[in-house]
Amino acid sequence: MEQVKVNFMKMNPKAQVPVYGTEYSAGADLSACMEQPVTIHAGTTEFIHTGIAVAIPRGLVGLIYARSGLACRQGLAPANKVGVIDSDYRGEIIVALHNHSLEDLVVEPGQRVAQMVITPYIYAAYEEKDSLDETDRGHGGFGSTGNR
Description:
The protein is mainly beta and about 150 residues long. About 5% of the residues lie in helices and about 35% in strands.
């Protein structure tokens, strides 16, 4: 497995290093870094600090995803579904955690709240055209391929 060095900085001495759950995990867990537990009321979003900043190498991006157990069993997942940490961002990683459940939930200091996947991306050069090449699908949108 290829490894890429990603430098990080603790912005809070209590911050935890991103950690992979297993040898083959794609995402490194990010932990809450705060002094007190935070209650996320049903249907609301709270900003959860991680206390770390990262220097993602150029050509890569950090994607912040839900931790499956937290999302599926408790209903806590990033409000924006997938957070994007660009390679030129040097601020603290903050997870906007939304409570999809019907009850208030508490996030404890040190609790793993999200996972970050480092992945390459393509920087597109967009060119405007008067028409686009034809395909079998054409203009078929939502649900259009389910009838085949």
